[in-house]
# Entry
Amino acid sequence: MASIMIKVAREGLISKAHRSADVGPTTGDSVVYEILNVPDGVSVDDVIAAFKGYKPADKVYEISYADLSK
# Structure
């Protein structure tokens, strides 16, 4: 299992974040999330696709991959 960092811009653009980025809001109107427990073989693009349509709870920046598919 791995973790993947993604960045969500205010405009809705989702991209891979730098591994050393801090989770939470950034100074540039983006939010960095850490997706935890990503199974082997799941790509960043798969995580981004699963995140689209997911509504994260307020001030929760670490999310289990299993929660994205609910």
Summary: The first strand starts at residue 2 and ends at 9. The beta strands are 2-9, 14-16, 24-25, 30-38, 62-64. Helices lie at 44-51, 65-68.
